[in-house]
Amino acid sequence: MTIPNDYKDIVTTLLEKTNNGRVHWKKGRFGIEVQVDKSGFKLWSGTDEHTDEAFVGFALTDMKGATMDSWYVDASDSDFDSMNLLFAAAKRYAYGIPQRLTELKEAMSNQEYLGSPEEDDL
Hints:
single chain
């Protein structure tokens, strides 16, 4: 399946804003999610249990998190790369990777040695 036409602009906007650090993605029970106005979006990925083909799923939810509409793209679909990029970027932000990397760079620049010596090395 490709991205449904009525979702193309939404997915494009989510990807652009995510890449600019302007979407507050959160870790959800089954994937990554964000609330927008009176709705939400959920993203998840995996592999099909029958074909082992990778996929990215997308759902529109209500304020309580109930799925109103959902669809997916799999690795053979033309829109898979853009959906996979969106999922990967959303996951990075939901897990706080950009902030963590900034903190690690600062910590590394302030330390003469990195890591702990193993007891065997003493």
